[in-house]
């Protein structure tokens, strides 16, 4: 067989369609050609479905010789069909079909043409070939062509990019290049692609460097940008204007030759076409894998950049054979060949299923070595990718051809979402080969349509699998959406300004990354709808629900897998016939269990519906969706659900709190048993609804029972009561060697637990878990023999990382405990006979009887395919493996756990763990079983390394960490939820806020749906990465949990039970006092922003601080570049990053904390105080906003800005940086240390505030206005203290300087350099313009006491609102295509991140609405002229985009201040000088009364005297107020506020818990009530606060 009968093209005797790479007459085609597969006979026969016994070559020739008639009329209709046909024309093929068959499938034709002319034209129409898909067939060929042409100057500079950027000399280097024309006579076609990529990178980098030249932030040169090095006339395209001619001109020329009317850099250019392949011959399973590529021309040279771009290239490359598979599908459709179509669709599905794995090479996990992509580094990435002009297409992931093609393949019709519109837009810019191929697929022989019309269930199943793999929640789009969410959240919080899909728009209610998440969801739904109908829920809401189970199956058999007579573990085989399901080793099955008939009977009999099992039921809750789902799966209309369905498929056990409460309320609290269950301290209760109803039916009056469960109605109460059950997950235990597997095995261990005492009474009873009891029922139960009539719903999912290595020679070790052996059976079946690498099993089970799959394993061991080591925990009849014979020999061994076994086998285990570089085998380690198995295995491995290879536990950890980083350790932990005790103390919000883990070795807590978890140990192994979980530290992240479908996901909730520390104190009940309730929300929102800012800053801070924060930093890449042999070169990256980071804080004035959000609080508190005071408009108020303004514009602040601006100067001109490098680093380190301290202090103040809110929850609401006044005064003080802290921050930082010759390497040279500089440029320390510093006008503070009235506050707010940027109208109509891209070029707003802009934007909006709503009262309180209140109206008035939230003006004018004059001159609001108010007001009285001096806090270096903590402050005013009745246990506490305790010292941040005891069994309120656990009846009566007497507290002042 030779290329004369190429099976790909079918051409006989012609030349190879792929090109010249083949060697004539040889067996192999050109490198990588499918034809080379012919060298592996097995593959060709499978690929072409060649029947057994038929000679391959002859068959292939015959296939090509088939006549058109034979192809089109292969299925001659039966007589019956003929008779039934009225229109006989339908029996004959139409002309279009005939022509197409004669010419070949359109998609194939485009492929062939592209292959034919591609090589001759330098692939300028785009890469497209059957073997390489959209990836270049040869990554190096074109680059060599460029290198041998004059264009080499461009590629040379590309190689120097990271170096010149690090030196700050890139622009200089680019401008110095000679001008080489990009015309045909200079640059050959063969070199076109790399020329385009090189020039694209150079031009974009030039733009980036120009925009970020150390003047974009705090600047001393008044907006003067560095000189243009690149002007070359006006007659140039907008995109290259300002760029040096040496790169701009050829870029235009080359772009034009490539069919790009406007030069632009695509995402594909940066990644897929910018990699080099390490081993081009490697074909498993595709060439351009992450591990087989290098980034050819890194731009900045960072690990994150490399990992990110390579990861994107890998994802696209994983689709390498996609175009061929799609063309083959089309061919099969044309020929109406079901079998061929099935084969090709399965191939396509498997290709798509690889994409998420490829995408996972982009890992947000710091322990993932070179795969790690840090979210905060994305900030720079977004800036680099900005398009060259507003009209050029922006770089976007949607430029990757697989997505555009798959949308066409699936016949997507709807492109209305933001991303849909963008995809269409980008398609128009795609290379012509790609567009032609897409058109060929989209407009001819629709595969989904053919499948839909066919009655072949296998095709339907596989098509469903394709849809899921591409755009399903567990498929590529789902995976992509989750990862982007995590990365974007971190990036937005750490300074990403660029928006995606309007996601940074301040008017948008949700936060930027949540908006993007929503946009992705819209696009996913558009893709899914043609197949699944109108989708009403969000994709993530389908996770962990029945919607993941889209196939129907039946249980075929249950078998013993060991010698355990109880069959605790069973092999359960399911029927997959005709489902179209395929799976890989390591995949999991999701299954919707059915309740046992016994449990159903208990419920049915108690409710009296045993005769009504088939009666229809009115559906509520999720049941209608479930009915629709059943219909969709069966491809029929939604069925009518009956009683039987509800009790068989609903959640009956265990008893959750909500389920018991429902029964309690339905029975009008009349059942003692129900009350008894409600008094339980641990939830869920170990029992079922059947148990509960059985018991309750006898102790509830029958008329109540009959009313509750009314049988004459349509039984909607049944679906109200019983919710649909959630699916369970099981590892798939087999890997059949079939194209479409006909069966699927599970290894199911029956979960058993003791029935709770309330139901069990004196006769203990063991219950089986719902699902495991259904799949593997107890042999003594009747379930074993009863037939299962209903279909079971199942679905396949693939874990993020639990797959066999690509390299069949790699050794694999399997660590299994009990049923943890489940997935390994699929592994060994897949590797048997195919892979040469060693397989070693370490198995831990209780006894010899429970040794699963013993016979199968022994056979494998004897065949040399498995090594087996066992540990029996309750059996001394041990087994020893003899490697030579492959036999397991009996040997007495004391009972032991798996960790001892691992230690015993330590030498081999260490070899497996250690990488090849470390001298080990670089084996793959898989751990599977329960959490305790996982813990035991890890302990064993650590110990083994310590015993055999290392001297300290630290070095053992390092060795293990390397294995994790190389992704060679993979886990599949079987998590089963555990009941939680609910009688734990509650944790206040302020306590949660303190656990942010931003300091080394401090704990990380998160709050989720009323519970607090300590996730310190979990963070490093969180699949979504450490940063995403840490970025939610200290706050309630329930929303994120919901968005990521973690809520309700049994796997997640099981895991969290391990980290549960207590219940979160709920929002206090202010008994309908809306003002208090709103204020609480606002304050909590402020605290949240502060905590999030603190945590996010830390991500960056640790890089500047280095070891000071405990995190190791890569100084080689950050502050120094290529530190070799002690020769360090300062890296501009560190300098620039610090400059941008600090500028952002200074320019925005820590805008998240001191911007609009703070002003909103001040406005509302001031309003409250003024409104409630008899002095009204004259009420004296602390001048918080003025204090912030004074701090931001103080001399110290100006001095700080100068330092930062000077650092920025080094970005543009790095020559001086080397003399001050240590000074810069020391300054940066000090600066961020002070930043963090400031943030911590602000957090502490905000915590005091929230404590105060919680304290007043007990105060009788009858006295609301006084409560409010007291609270508002206290909160105002806190805000004032925050402002003072800002002032202290500036004053502390102003003490530091980058000029520290003494610490430099060569102090003398440094001094000399400084002298020279000063002689040369004495103005370096003089601010040329006040305007550019701080982004606001400066003025000098006054010394007098800072007390103002409401008018002053209002004028601040007025000014802020007036100067706010106009609100961008939320996109209501379909965006125009170009407008979408134009958005990407928008300049960042005042350096504030999308996170900050959003937070402040929302606050601006709220302030505007507040003013609007309270206009009357405000008029009464204010002497200011009325202002337009509606924010939108005001925004329209200010069409110029003034950005950010400006510093508020001084509260009083100063005749002495020159800057004050500037304010008036600058057209700012005219502030009237406000006389000091000395008269007393109740508000101010309270304000004064709660101040308490603290010794040693009087200097300017300290904030104003701190008040007592919130609780104590409020407490001191209690005498005036009534106290709401409380329980006796509460009254016995040391004082009303005695349960809140904070150290009065500002610095002493208490880490200890001050937990409040609650004795209530199920209301997680932190206010304890009278003990209900002892008195069941009292429960009914004490729903709201009990009957305890009000307590009078003696006044303390
Ligand atoms: C990735 C993965 C793979 C798995 N693979 C396998 C496998 O191959 N083989 C295997 O046997 N098992 C496997 N499991 C475990 C399996 O999914 C089930 O958890 C197990 O079978 C028990 O389910 P059940 O319905 O029988 O028990 P359940 O009825 O769910 O009850 C089990 C226990 O959990 C408690 N419980 C139930 N619901 C809650 C709740 N909401 N809150 C607190 N506690 C609760 C019950 O009180 C009871 O003690 C795997 C789990 C995961 C996550």
- How many beta-strand elements? 28
Are there runs of 5+ residues with pLDDT below 50, and where? 1-5, 7-42, 501-508, 1107-1113, 1322-1345, 1428-1500, 1503-1511, 1513-1597
Cα-based radius of gyration, to the nearest Å: 36 Å
**Beta-strand residue fraction:** 5-15%
Count of helical stretches: 63
Structural class: alpha+beta
- Arithmetic mean of pLDDT: 80
Helix percentage: 40-55%
Distance N terminus to C terminus?
Answer: 104 Å
Write down the overall geometry. globular
Main β-sheet description: 5 strands, parallel
Q: Could you tell me which ligands this complex binds, including any ions or cofactors?
A: flavin-adenine dinucleotide
Order of strands across the main sheet: 15-14-13-18-19
Give a written overview of the molecule.
- Belongs to the indoleamine 2,3-dioxygenase family.
- This protein is of the alpha+beta class and 1597 residues long.
- Helix content is 44%, strand content 8%.
- The strands form ten sheets. It has a five-stranded parallel beta sheet, with helices on both faces.
- A hairpin with a 2-residue loop joins strand 22 (1005-1008) and strand 23.
- It binds flavin-adenine dinucleotide.
- Flavin-adenine dinucleotide (FAD) is lined by residues 588, 593, 653-654, 684, 686, 728-731, 747-749, 751, 753, 769-773, 819, 822, 972, 974-979, 1051.
């Amino acid at each position: 067989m030779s290329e004369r009968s190429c099976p790909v093209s079918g051409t006989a005797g012609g030349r190879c369609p792929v090109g010249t790479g083949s060697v004539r007459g040889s067996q192999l085609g050109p490198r990588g050609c499918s034809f080379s597969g012919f060298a592996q006979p097995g593959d060709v026969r499978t690929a072409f479905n060649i029947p057994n016994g038929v000679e391959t070559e002859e068959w292939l020739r015959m296939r090509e010789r088939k006549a058109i008639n034979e192809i089109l009329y292969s299925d001659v209709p039966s007589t019956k069909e003929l008779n039934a046909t009225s229109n006989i024309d339908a029996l004959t093929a139409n002309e279009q079909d005939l022509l197409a068959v004669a010419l070949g499938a359109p998609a194939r034709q485009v492929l062939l043409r592209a292959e034919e002319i591609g090589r001759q034209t330098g692939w300028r129409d785009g890469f497209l070939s059957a073997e390489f898909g959209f990836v270049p067939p040869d990554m190096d060929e074109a680059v060599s062509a460029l290198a041998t042409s004059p264009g080499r100057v461009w590629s040379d500079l590309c190689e120097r990019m990271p170096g010149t950027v690090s030196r700050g000399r890139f622009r200089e280097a680019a401008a110095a290049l000679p001008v080489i024309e990009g015309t045909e006579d200079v640059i050959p076609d063969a070199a076109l692609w790399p020329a385009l990529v090189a020039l694209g990178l150079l031009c974009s980098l030039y733009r980036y460097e120009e925009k970020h030249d150390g003047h974009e932030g705090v600047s001393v040169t008044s907006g003067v940008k560095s000189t243009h090095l690149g002007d070359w006339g006006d007659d140039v395209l907008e995109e290259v204007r300002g760029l040096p001619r040496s790169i701009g001109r050829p870029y235009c020329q080359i772009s034009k030759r490539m069919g790009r009317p406007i030069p632009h850099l695509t995402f594909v250019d940066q990644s897929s076409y910018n990699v080099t392949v390490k081993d081009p011959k490697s074909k498993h399973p595709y060439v351009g894998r992450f591990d087989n590529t290098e980034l050819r021309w890194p731009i900045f040279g960072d690990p994150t950049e490399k990992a990110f771009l390579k990861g994107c290239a890998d994802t696209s490359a994983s689709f390498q054979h996609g175009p061929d598979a799609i063309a083959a599908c089309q061919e099969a459709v044309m020929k109406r060949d079901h079998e061929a179509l099935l084969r090709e669709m399965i191939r396509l599905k498997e290709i798509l299923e690889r994409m998420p794995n490829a995408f996972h090479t982009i890992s947000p996990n710091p322990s993932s070595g070179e795969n790690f992509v840090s979210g905060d580094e994305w900030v720079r990435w977004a800036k680099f990718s900005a398009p060259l002009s507003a009209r050029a297409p922006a770089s976007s992931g949607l430029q990757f051809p697989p997505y555009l093609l798959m949308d066409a393949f699936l016949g997507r019709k709807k492109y209305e979402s933001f991303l849909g519109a963008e995809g269409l837009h980008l398609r128009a810019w795609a290379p012509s080969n790609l567009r032609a191929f897409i058109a060929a697929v989209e407009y001819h022989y629709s595969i989904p349509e053919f499948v839909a019309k066919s009655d072949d269930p296998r095709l339907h199943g596989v098509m469903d699998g394709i849809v899921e793999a591409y755009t399903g929640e567990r498929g590529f789009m789902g995976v992509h959406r989750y990862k982007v969410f995590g990365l974007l959240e971190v990036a937005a919080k750490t300074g990403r300004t660029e928006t995606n899909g309007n996601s940074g728009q301040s008017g948008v209610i949700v936060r930027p990354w949540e908006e993007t998440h929503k946009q992705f969801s819209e696009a996913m739904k558009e893709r899914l709808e043609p197949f699944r109908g109108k989708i009403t829920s969000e994709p993530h809401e389908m996770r962990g629900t029945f919607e993941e189970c889209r196939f129907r199956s039946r249980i075929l058999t249950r078998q013993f897998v060991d010698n355990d007579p109880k069959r605790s573990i069973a092999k359960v085989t399911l029927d997959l016939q005709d489902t179209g399901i395929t799976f890989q080793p390591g995949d999991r099955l999701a299954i919707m269990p059915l309740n046992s008939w016994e449990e159903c009977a208990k419920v049915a009999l108690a409710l009296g519906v045993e005769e009504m099992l088939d009666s229809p039921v009115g559906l509520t809750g999720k049941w209608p969706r479930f009915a629709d789902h059943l219909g969709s799966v069966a491809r029929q209309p939604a069925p009518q659900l009956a009683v039987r369905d509800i009790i068989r498929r609903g959640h009956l056990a265990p008893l959750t709190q909500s389920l018991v409460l429902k029964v309690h309320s339905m029975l009008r609290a009349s059942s003692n048993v129900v009350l008894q269950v409600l008094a339980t301290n641990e939830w869920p209760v170990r029992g079922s609804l059947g148990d509960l109803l059985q018991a309750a039916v006898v102790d509830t009056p029958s008329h109540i029972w009959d009313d509750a469960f009314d049988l004459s109605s349509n039984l909607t109460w049944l679906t109200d009561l019983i919710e649909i059950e959630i699916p369970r997950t099981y590892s798939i235990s087999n890997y059949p060697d079939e194209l479409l597997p006909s069966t699927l095995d599970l290894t199911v261990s029956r979960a058993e637990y003791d029935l709770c005492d309330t139901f069990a009474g004196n006769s203990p009873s063991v219950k089986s878990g719902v699902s495991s009891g259904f799949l593997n029922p107890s042999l003594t139960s009747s379930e074993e023999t009863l037939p299962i009539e209903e279909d079971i719903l199942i679905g396949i999912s693939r874990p993020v990382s639990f797959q066999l290595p690509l390299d069949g020679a790699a050794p694999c070790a399997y660590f299994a405990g009990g049923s943890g052996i489940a997935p390994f059976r699929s592994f060994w079946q897949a590797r048997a006979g195919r892979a040469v690498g060693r397989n070693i099993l370490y198995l831990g089970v209780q006894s010899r009887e429970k040794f699963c799959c013993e016979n199968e394993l022994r056979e494998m061991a004897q065949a040399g395919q498995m090594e087996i080591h066992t540990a029996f925990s309750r059996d001394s009849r041990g087994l020893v493996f003899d490697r030579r014979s492959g036999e397991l020999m009996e040997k007495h061994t004391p009972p032991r756990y798996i960790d001892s076994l691992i230690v015993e086998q330590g030498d081999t285990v260490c070899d497996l763990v250690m990488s090849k570089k470390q001298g080990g085998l670089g084996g793959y380690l898989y751990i599977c079983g329960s959490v305790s198995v996982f813990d035991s295995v890890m302990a064993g491995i650590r110990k083994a390394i310590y015993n055999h290879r290392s001297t300290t536990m630290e070095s053992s950890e390092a060795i293990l960490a390397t294995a994790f980083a190389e992704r060679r350790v993979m886990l599949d932990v079987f998590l089963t939820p555990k009941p939680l005790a609910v009688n734990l103390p509650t944790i206040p919000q302020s306590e949660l806020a303190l656990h942010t883990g931003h300091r080394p070795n401090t704990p990380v807590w998160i709050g989720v749906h009323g519970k607090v978890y300590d996730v310190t140990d979990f963070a490093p192994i969180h699949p979504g990465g450490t940063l995403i979980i840490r970025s939610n530290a200290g706050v309630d992240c329930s929303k994120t949990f919901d968005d990521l479908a973690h809520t309700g996901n049994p796997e997640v909730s099981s895991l969290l039970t391990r980290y549960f520390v207590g219940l979160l104190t709920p929002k206090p009940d202010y008994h309908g006092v809306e003002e208090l309730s709103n204020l609480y929300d606002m304050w909590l929102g402020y605290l949240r922003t502060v905590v999030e800012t603190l945590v996010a800053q830390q991500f960056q801070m640790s890089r500047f601080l280095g070891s000071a924060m405990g995190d190791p930093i890569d100084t080689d890449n950050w502050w120094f570049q290529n530190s070799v042999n002690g020769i360090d070169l300062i890296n501009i990256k560190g300098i620039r990053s610090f400059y941008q980071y600090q500028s952002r804080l200074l320019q925005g004035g820590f805008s998240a904390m001191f911007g609009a959000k703070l002003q909103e609080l001040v406005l509302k508190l001031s309003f409250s105080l003024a409104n409630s005071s008899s002095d009204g408009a004259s009420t004296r108020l602390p001048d918080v906003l003025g204090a912030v303004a004074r701090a931001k514009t103080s001399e110290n602040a100006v001095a700080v800005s100068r330092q930062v601006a000077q650092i920025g100067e080094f970005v543009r001109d790095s020559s001086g940086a080397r003399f001050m490098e240590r000074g810069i680093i020391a300054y940066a380190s000090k600066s961020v240390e002070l930043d963090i301290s400031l943030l911590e202090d602000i957090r502490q103040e905000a915590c005091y505030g929230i404590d105060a809110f919680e304290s007043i929850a007990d105060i009788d609401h009858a006295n609301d206005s006084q409560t409010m006044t007291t609270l508002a005064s206290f909160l105002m003080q806190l805000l004032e203290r925050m402002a003072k802290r800002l002032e202290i921050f500036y004053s502390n930082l102003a003490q530091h300087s980058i000029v520290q010759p003494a610490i430099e390497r060569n102090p003398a040279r440094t001094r000399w350099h400084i002298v020279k500089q000063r002689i040369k440029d004495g103005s370096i320390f003089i601010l040329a313009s006040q305007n550019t510093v701080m982004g606001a006008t400066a003025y000098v503070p006054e010394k007098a006491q800072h007390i103002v009235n409401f008018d002053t506050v209002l004028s601040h707010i007025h000014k802020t609102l007036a100067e706010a940027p106009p609100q961008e109208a939320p996109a209501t109509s379909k965006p125009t295509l170009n407008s979408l891209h134009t958005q990407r070029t928008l300049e960042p707003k005042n350096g504030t991140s999308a996170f900050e802009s959003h937070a402040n934007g929302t606050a601006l909006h709220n302030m505007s609405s507040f003013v609007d709503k309270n206009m009357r009262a405000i008029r009464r309180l204010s002497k200011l002229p009325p202002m337009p209140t509606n924010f939108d109206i005001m925004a329209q008035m200010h069409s110029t985009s003034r950005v950010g939230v400006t510093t508020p003006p001084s509260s009083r004018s100063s005749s002495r201040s020159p800057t004050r004059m500037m304010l008036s001159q600058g057209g700012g609001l005219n502030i009237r000088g406000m006389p000091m108010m000395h008269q007393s007001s109740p508000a101010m009285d309270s304000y004064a009364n709660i101040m308490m001096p603290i010794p040693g806090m009087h200097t300017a270096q300290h904030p104003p005297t701190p008040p007592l903590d919130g609780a104590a402050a409020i407490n001191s005013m209690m005498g005036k107020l009534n106290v709401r009745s409380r329980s006796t246990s509460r009254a016995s506490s040391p004082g009303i506020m005695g349960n809140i305790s904070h150290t009065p010292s500002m610095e002493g941040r208490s880490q200890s818990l001050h937990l409040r005891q609650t004795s209530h069994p199920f209301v997680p309120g932190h206010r304890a009530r009278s003990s209900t656990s002892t008195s069941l009846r009292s429960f009914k009566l004490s729903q709201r606060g009990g009957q305890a007497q009000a307590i009078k507290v003696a006044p303390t002042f």
